[in-house]
């Protein structure tokens, strides 16, 4: 059973509080002040930059859902395999709202120290997302 500060527990809290419950304040509670985030096509530093990414994604996909399929972890890292879906109701990735349902899969690797996320990497199937939004 993961302890409260274990990477697997922190990763579970991240996905539940931030993505399931859409609690933007959890971003500040779970991220270190100088976190480094390596996102698809973007590097961020600090929770405030991630809040902007979070709000932008939810503006583009107001019904965004992410389902955690698996979490594995050790003393310093956790890896989360997930599936996401949402209706593209706002501009995202340089594309005007299409009204189309989009789904894609990805993985998030988190490095955790003292119960806080200090670095994270997201890798997701951007090609599948773009294909599902393509205007025919």
Explain what you see:
The protein has one domain (7-133): Roll (Nuclear Transport Factor 2, Chain: A). It has 4 helices and 6 strands; from the N terminus they run ααββαββββα. Helix 1 (7-20) packs antiparallel against helix 2 (24-30). Strand 3 (65-73) and strand 4 (77-87) form a beta hairpin. A 6-stranded mixed beta sheet has the order 2-1-6-5-4-3. Helices cover 32% and strands 40% of the residues. It has 136 residues and is an alpha+beta fold.
Poorly predicted spans = none
Instruction: Indicate the multimeric state.
Output: single chain
Helix content: 25-40%
SS-derived structural category: alpha+beta
Q: What number of domains?
A: 1
Tally of helical segments: 4
Highest CATH level, the class: Alpha Beta
Largest sheet: 6 strands, mixed
Give the name of the CATH architecture: Roll
- What sequence of helices (H) and strands (E) makes up the elements? HHEEHEEEEH
Task: Identify the overall geometry.
Answer: globular
CATH domain fold name: Nuclear Transport Factor 2, Chain: A
Rg from Cα: 15 Å
Q: How many DSSP-defined strands?
A: 6
Overall average pLDDT:
92
Order of strands, widest sheet: 2-1-6-5-4-3
Terminus-to-terminus distance: 48 Å
Give the percentage of residues in beta strands.
35-45%
Short description:
With 136 residues, this protein is of the alpha+beta class. The chain is 32% helix and 40% strand.
Entry keywords:
136 residues, alpha+beta, Nuclear Transport Factor 2, Chain: A, 32% helix, globular
């Amino acid at each position: 059973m993961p302890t409260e500060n274990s990477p697997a527990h922190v990763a579970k809290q991240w996905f539940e509080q931030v993505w399931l419950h859409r609690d933007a304040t959890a971003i500040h509670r779970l991220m270190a002040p100088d976190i480094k985030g390596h996102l698809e096509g973007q590097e961020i530093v600090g929770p405030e930059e991630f809040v902007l990414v979070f709000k932008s994604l939810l503006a583009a996909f107001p019904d965004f859902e992410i389902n955690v399929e698996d979490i594995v972890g050790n003393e310093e890292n956790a890896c989360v395999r997930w599936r996401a879906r949402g209706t593209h109701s706002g501009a995202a990735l340089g594309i005007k709202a299409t009204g189309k349902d989009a789904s894609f899969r990805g993985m998030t690797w988190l490095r955790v120290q003292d119960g806080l996320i200090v670095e994270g990497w997201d890798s997701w199937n951007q090609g599948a997302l773009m294909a599902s939004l393509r205007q025919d």
